[in-house]
């Protein structure tokens, strides 16, 4: 099974895309220990093993800042990580998209992502960058692959948050594991399919907010 990592190239202009030391929250595999401009880097480092085959899908919006960040920062960081950790990379699949929030653009992006995902892939997605609709499109693509691609699974969904700079000007941030949100959506779909009589209570039980034998107020 190939591990496929999906990310979005950021917009920030030169001088604003600061390297960040991300502290992992909720998943020790995301602990990287070095600065990076891209939270997908800790994800690859944490989940891909030496000599393992990986694919990368990069969503690249039209515009000079996006192109600059892709060519001058993203590709060099990926190449350095691959060389250091000894991965077998099948390449970077670039998905171009217009700089527009029109619904037809979002639907085309969804179509392009699912077309880039094959069978027998374990998917890892960074939802840090992009406009507000972008993570929705990414989740839709993951849901499609999980349900309709052959032997596809979702390994991790992560979000990196930039906080501030320390006294030396180094970026400080946190990277959060958001995978449970994806699987919660799948659980909701299952509850609906099976006509659960009390879906809200079932979810609260799964989240540990209520005992199976009664409410947590009993």
Characterize this entry briefly.
The protein contains six helices and eight strands, in the order βββαβαβαβαββαα.
Relevant terms:
8 strands; alpha/beta; 38% helix; Rossmann fold; globular; 218 residues; eight-stranded mixed beta sheet; 2 domains
Describe the largest sheet: 8 strands, mixed
Shape: globular
The CATH class of the largest domain is Alpha Beta
Number of domains: 2
State the CATH architecture of the largest domain.
3-Layer(aba) Sandwich
Architecture blueprint of SSEs:
Blueprint: E1 2-8, E2 20-25, E3 35-36, H1 40-47, E4 53-61, H2 64-85, E5 88-97, H3 103-116, E6 121-126, H4 133-148, E7 153-165, E8 171-177, H5 179-193, H6 199-206
Parallel strand pairs: 1-4, 1-6, 2-8, 4-5, 6-7
Antiparallel strand pairs: 2-3, 7-8
Question: What can you see in these coordinates?
Answer:
- By secondary structure, this protein is of the alpha/beta class.
- It folds into 2 domains: 2-177, Rossmann fold, CATH 3.40.50; 180-218, no CATH class.
- Helices cover 38% and strands 28% of the residues.
- The chain has 6 helices and 8 strands.
- The chain has helices spanning 40-47, 64-85, 103-116, 133-148, 179-193, 199-206, and strands spanning 2-8, 20-25, 35-36, 53-61, 88-97, 121-126, 153-165, 171-177.
- An 8-stranded mixed β-sheet has the order 3-2-8-7-6-1-4-5, sandwiched between helices.
- Helix 2 links the parallel strand 4 (53-61) and strand 5.
- Helix 3 runs parallel beside helix 4.
- The protein is globular, with a radius of gyration of 19 Å.
- 28% of the residues are buried.
């Amino acid at each position: 099974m190939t591990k496929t990592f999906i990310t979005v190239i950021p917009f920030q202009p030169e001088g604003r895309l600061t390297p960040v030391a991300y502290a992992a929250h909720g998943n020790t595999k995301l602990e990287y220990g070095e600065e990076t401009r891209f939270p997908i880097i800790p994800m690859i480092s944490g989940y891909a093993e030496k000599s393992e085959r990986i694919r990368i899908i990069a969503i690249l919006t039209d515009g000079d800042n996006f192109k600059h960040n892709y060519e001058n920062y993203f590709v060099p960081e990926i190449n350095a990580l691959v060389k250091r950790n000894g991965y077998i990379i099948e390449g970077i699949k670039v998905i171009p998209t217009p700089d527009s929030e029109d619904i037809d653009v979002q639907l085309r992006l969804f179509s392009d992502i699912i077309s880039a995902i094959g069978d027998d892939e374990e998917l890892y997605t960074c939802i840090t960058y992009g406009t507000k609709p972008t993570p929705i499109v990414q989740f839709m693509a993951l849901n499609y692959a999980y349900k309709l691609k052959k032997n596809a699974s979702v390994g991790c969904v992560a979000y990196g948050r930039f906080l501030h700079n320390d006294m030396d000007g180094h970026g400080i941030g946190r990277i959060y594991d958001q995978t449970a949100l994806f699987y919660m959506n799948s659980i909701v779909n299952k509850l609906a399919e099976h006509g659960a009589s009390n879906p809200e209570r079932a979810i609260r039980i799964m989240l540990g907010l209520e005992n199976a034998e009664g409410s947590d107020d009993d």
